[in-house]
Design brief:
Layout (H helix, E strand, L loop, with lengths): L3 H5 L4 H5 L4 E5 L2 H4 L30 H15 L3 E5 L2 H5 L4 H12 L3 E7 L5 H5 L7 H17 L5 E5 L2 H10 L14 H20 L8 E3 L3 E3 L5 H21 L4 H4 L8 H5 L6 E4 L4 E4 L10 E3 L16 H13 L6 E6 L10 H16 L4 E5 L18 E4 L4 E4 L1 H11 L1
Parallel strand pairs: 1-2, 1-11, 2-3, 3-4, 5-7, 6-8, 7-10, 10-11
Antiparallel strand pairs: 8-9, 12-13
Helix pairs in contact: 4-6, 8-10, 9-10, 9-11, 10-11, 14-15, 15-16
């Protein structure tokens, strides 16, 4: 098969990165693909994690079988790019053909493929060998990255090795809210360095395979002190959530308060901080912190942000926090690569007339443009399996009836389509 379309149309990395503004949507493999059948993919840590109300992602949105329909929805929406993730457990089972088909379908529709290699679905076999607590996992991940790159690098426009490493460390290993469900507190910190190392090693493997545009997708939140005396608490939280990853990837260093806790080997930080072609910001809300109460083993406590409206998930809606965060990044990193908002969205009840989601997107897109971001990817194209919350939260521009798998565009889908056309 030849890829004249790739060479001529809009999906070359230089075309995509040079676009005035890149409109996109995002999903992740575990949350939408389904097709967890014998031989289809190996189990991930999320298959082994306690289910929410007995729900699982064995079928999810059945995107594995319905991807052409879903790409058709993107084509009608008019997006220039689709950010999806590749399932490490599926690739270990020998199935890369699905992503071949998906990428070809996207290109034929004039949509740039943006591939994330890891969106939290660690194979059970890898976790059983130590997971992200072990340095060897970073090298196994790099081997996987090389395998995927060798197959898809000629056609994927933008690459993101690891999605939101902060959430893997904080929720998966420090407090146990996410898979693999470990509650290690500060003993989880080695995972942060191993995730950063995996990012750097994978970036190198992708470039060796011919990938031409490599970035990242870090979750960021402005850390607001509850009062003047709570500034140290906010700074401690920001070190853990924001700078533990951005500092390493963009400047080859770690926050002073955390560096001594990390298993750094000579040469690691040079690998982690290899130059990036773009920087992805995943933003949902700011976080308010105060000095911890007695007996709290952490140097901060989270405080509710009450003065803003809330999403269906209970997250405060603060569009200005997005431009605030991008400004903080620009102030901290003089040579910050082009910034893309690689995830931003909201969960609301299943109504098709989702005016609250429209208001959310309108405000956040305006702040992204104001901050000089080069693109915005809505989370998410469709409703999906929302990790520890199962199917109780609906982030989609497209409503999914999980019993029938019928897709129905919401009012926000129509709004986003019109916004793109403008």
């Amino acid at each position: 098969m030849t890829f004249t379309f790739w060479e001529v149309r809009v999906t070359r990395p230089d075309d995509v990165l040079g676009a005035d503004f890149l409109w996109g949507v995002s999903t992740s493999a575990f949350q939408i693909e389904g097709a967890f059948t014998a031989g289809g993919r190996q189990p991930s840590v999320w298959d082994a994690f306690p289910a929410f109300e007995g729900q699982d992602a064995s079928v999810a949105c059945d995107h594995y079988h319905r991807y052409r329909e879903d790409v058709g929805l993107m084509r009608s929406l008019g997006v220039g790019a689709y950010r999806f993730s590749v399932s490490w457990p599926r690739v270990l089972a020998g199935d890369l053909e699905f992503y071949d088909r998906l990428v070809d379908e996207l290109l034929e529709s004039g949509i740039a493929p943006v591939a994330t290699l890891y969106h939290w679905d660690t194979p059970v076999a890898v976790e059983g060998a130590g997971g992200w607590l072990h340095r060897d996992t970073a090298h196994r991940f790099a081997e996987y990255a090389g395998t995927v790159g060798a197959r898809l690098a000629d056609r994927v426009a933008m690459w993101i090795p690891i999605n939101e490493p902060a959430m893997v460390t904080l929720l998966g290993y420090a407090v146990g809210q996410h898979a693999p469900g470990k509650a290690l507190l500060y003993d989880a910190l080695p995972t942060a360095h191993h995730l950063n190392l995996a990012h750097g090693l994978a970036a190198g493997a992708l470039r060796s395979a011919g990938a031409r545009a490599i970035g990242t997708a870090n979750n960021h939140t402005p850390a607001w002190p509850a009062g003047p005396s709570d500034v140290p608490a906010a700074e401690a939280y920001s070190d853990l959530h924001n700078w533990l990853y951005a500092d390493a990837q963009l400047a080859g260093r770690y926050p002073d308060a955390l560096a001594d806790r990390l298993p750094i080997v000579d040469g690691d930080l040079a690998i982690v901080a290899a130059p990036l072609d773009f920087y992805g910001v995943n933003y949902y809300n700011p976080t308010r912190l105060r000095t911890p109460s007695e007996g709290n083993p952490l140097p901060f406590e989270l405080v509710e942000i009450e003065e803003y409206p809330k999403t269906g998930f209970g997250w405060p809606v603060v569009p200005s926090g997005l431009s605030e965060m991008i400004s903080l990044l620009r102030d901290r990193f003089v040579d910050l690569p082009p910034v893309y908002v690689t995830e931003s969205g909201c969960s609301y009840p299943h109504s098709l007339d989702d005016t609250e989601r429209i208001a959310y997107l309108d405000g956040h897109i305006a702040e992204a443009v104001k901050a000089g971001a080069r693109g915005y990817f809505v989370w998410s194209l469709m409703d999906n399996f929302e990790w520890d919350s199962g199917y109780s939260q609906r982030f989609g521009l497209v409503h999914v009836d999980y019993a029938t798998q019928q897709r129905t565009p919401r009012a926000s889908y129509e709004w986003y389509r019109d916004r793109i056309r403008q």
